[in-house]
Amino acid sequence: MQEMPEQSRDVPPDNIFPWYLAVLTGAGVLYSLTCAPGMLWQDSAFYVWRIWNNDIEGIMGLALSHPLYIMIGIAVKHIPLGEFAWRLNLISAVFGAAAVANLFLLLRLWLGRLLPALIGAVTFAVSWTFWQQSVMAEVYTLHAALMLGELIVLLQYIRAKRPAYLYLLGLFNGLAIANHMWAVFGFACYTVFLFVLLVRRQLGAKHFGIIVLLWVIGALPYEYLVIKNIVLSGDLQATLVSAMCGRLWQANVLNVSMSVKVVLENIMFVLLNFPTPNLLLLFAGLWALRQKAPGRSFANIVLALLVLHFAFAFRYTVVDRYVFFLPFYCLAATIIGLGADVILRRYGYKVLVLIMMVFAMVPVPIYFVTPAVARKMYKPLGQRRQRPYRDEYDYFLQPWKAGYRGAERFANEALNGVEENAIIYADPTIVHLLLYMRQAKSERVDINIVSKYYSSENAPAFTEETIERLMESSPVYVVSPLPGYCPQFLLQRYKFEQAGVLWKVID
User: Fold this and answer.
1) Fewer C-beta neighbours within 10 Å, C or N terminus of the chain?
2) Using an 8 Å Cβ cutoff, are 93 and 203 in contact?
3) d(CA 395, CA 391)
């Protein structure tokens, strides 16, 4: 197999844009066909409900506001095409396809070769976490698309030395900040890079000022929320903590302790995303990173981002920490493409291309059988709280959500199965599903939905002091009578009787 020369200028290969469109279309078809048709559980329902109510900030802290994503969702809200929740799920599919295409473009420009770029893109496209987040209303695929866009323009700047690429770098990272605070890792790396350029007089003050200005413009939605909170609260420190960690997760963000269980689960997460022999290409790519990079600075930034994202997610202790490995998977798939290039250049056998492509697709059939294997080998997943119409193994371990209507079915039965003026207490993983279905899909506006953080409009205070009075005037239900999902004062003072998909609180 004949080697192609490294690209030394910013002129793309002749056939790059047709291939980019082909990858974009292929990933878009995959995610669109496997996209959830409507409402889901947990954070996905939270975003749908916020967008329905034009809630750009939320109440969970600034780090969880994700204003850019919410603003895009509000714009899509006004497109009269299909069911509302499906349209929002489709946002993730579109940006997921863009991220896969951007990864392909990054490798194609970097290596000047088609096959390694395709191997890296396919590996990323079918990785468990990214595929899962590409078929539901979530903020993560937008971040991946922007992060890979940052690396593309950084690569082009290092080769061509055109400041316009740094302008785009500033804009993309600003937009990424407005979407998710993961972007602070890129911000730190790019800031060091730019200051080195300034010190070495390779970048003028005028160009640096334009980069900063474009970053400020890109991050404007987030900056607005931060400034507004500082002005309204007068508490600079609390606002900055909220901006970096949210309201309740400072200890998780700063955590440095580990347990054997967490370590083993983290390893399992990585293997579930790359259950293929192509994972070994990651090590070949890391070995060749500095040699293959167009400059030491580019290699250093890619490696720093890889390590920072991995380290952050590995010692993060939130329940859904598996999602926080996603930027690492994005970078790891890029390095896997680099490793494929190393092997294909050294061993020019055409059969190797076929083998690598087959290995890249191996995760797809594995995800079909993973739930059955996990039922036998990992019982804790099935011992956690069970939600009606949701098999925890299938829902969690299979990335696709095509045809899934379990969340909507649960919400409809919950809302239609209670008496007039009933009160339903829901934990944070379910409350937004019920709130949205009550507000947008149901006629049961007489029902009051309450939770620890969010409640329906004009809902009564649901506390230990008010519960006795509420029980005298209204039937009270809970979604789950388990510790952590139900107020402790209810568990201590009352009994529960199953009533359809809910549990009725009784004396």
Assistant:
1) C
2) no
3) 6
Judge whether 57 and 67 are in contact, CB under 8 Å: yes
**pLDDT at residue 183 tops 80:** yes
Q: Sheet containing 495-499: give its strands across.
A: 448-450, 423-425, 476-478, 502-506, 495-499
- Range of lowest pLDDT (255-264, 306-315, 345-354): 255-264
pLDDT surpasses 70 at 191:
yes
DSSP string covering 288-353, please? HHHHHSSSHHHHHHHHHHHHHHHHHHHT--STTGGGGGHHHHHHHHHHHHHHHHHHHHHS--HHHH
Contact 506, 496 (CB under 8 A): yes
**b/e map 318-351, b = 16+ CB within 10 Å:** eeebbbbbbbbbbbbbbbbbbbbbbbbbeeeeee
User: By C-alpha distance, which of 259, 182, 188, 250 is closest to 222?
Assistant: 182
Scan for tokens 């409809």, then name that residue: 412
Would you say residue 247 has pLDDT above 80? no
Instruction: For the chain, give the number of residues.
Output: 507
243: which residues sit within 8 A by CB, 6+ positions away? 61, 62, 63, 181, 222, 226
Q: What is the pTM of this model?
A: 0.92
User: What is the per-residue pLDDT for 231?
Assistant: 92
Tokens 């509420």 sit on residue = 470
* DSSP string for residues in 408-438: HHHHHHHHHSS-TT-EEE--TTTHHHHHHII
Where is average pLDDT lowest: 319-323, 327-331, 418-422? 319-323
pLDDT digits (tens, 9 = 90+) for 260-290: 888 888 899 999 999 999 999 999 999 999 9
Two structure tokens written together for 124: 């990323």
